[in-house]
Amino acid sequence: MRFSSLGSGSEGNAWLFESSNDQASPTRIMVDCGFTIKGTVARLDRMGLSPEQVNALIVTHEHDDHLGGVFKFSRKFNAPVFLTHGTWRAALRTKRTDAAYLQTGLVNLIESHQAFEVGSLSIQPFPVPHDALEPIQMLVSDGQYHVGILTDCGSSTPHLVRMLGKADALILESNHCPDMLLQSPYPDSLKRRVGGNYGHLSNQTACEILRSLVGGKLRFAVAAHLSKNTNDAKLVRTMWNDILAPAGVRFGVACQENGFDWWNVRDILTADNTAQA
Ligand SMILES: [Zn+2]
Ligand SMILES: [Zn+2]
């Protein structure tokens, strides 16, 4: 299984997962789509994929940087959409879709605790504290490896840490530096929202989660959803390196413009085994 990002941040998000490419027809899913059709197609092209190769869209929640392009993409390329009941209701309110879209058969309503399958990939969603109607994040598995995603989450919970303990690789939000947020020109209400328990993960909370995962299965991590105004990728790299380097866990940072190039989970684990041999 391999995964990549088409872009990550408050201006748009999309993650790609592809089941093992030694299969005749690998399954490819896109988690969230916060870009225009044109932007999404161009970004997919950069990853060597055509839009028709995306088998399904999974939506984490209704915020525009995640939902903005979902239904346009689904309609144009006939791609099924998987989302919770709450996110569907919220999507109707945003007018990004309408109730008639249910008749296309492309809408799949899911439970926030119930695993489901798309082709040869299995998705285990879990609920997260974020200011949306029924937000989820998830583990994606090809039966052999697990990749976890956790962005758009205001605080850590024992349940989500337990879920992420199964992940060989993890995409983890490191949204803001609390000091930079405090000193930013954002209105107080926005500072409270972003920094609150239903907002976004600070660098510190992301590091706490990483600390609780090192020493377990985790071999690779990607820092995601970094704020352009209230964070600094260099700072995140330093903080992550302090925790992950001693444990031999490699990491990267996904950015808004270029996302993150393909990472093959098997290659990551094989490289680790070779290094240990
Ligand atoms: Zn977001
Ligand atoms: Zn959000």
From TrEMBL:
<protein>
    <submittedName>
        <fullName>MBL fold metallo-hydrolase</fullName>
    </submittedName>
</protein>
<dbReference type="InterPro" id="IPR036866">
    <property type="entry name" value="RibonucZ/Hydroxyglut_hydro"/>
</dbReference>
<dbReference type="InterPro" id="IPR052533">
    <property type="entry name" value="WalJ/YycJ-like"/>
</dbReference>
<dbReference type="Pfam" id="PF12706">
    <property type="entry name" value="Lactamase_B_2"/>
</dbReference>
<feature type="domain" description="Metallo-beta-lactamase">
    <location>
        <begin position="11"/>
        <end position="198"/>
    </location>
</feature>
<dbReference type="InterPro" id="IPR001279">
    <property type="entry name" value="Metallo-B-lactamas"/>
</dbReference>
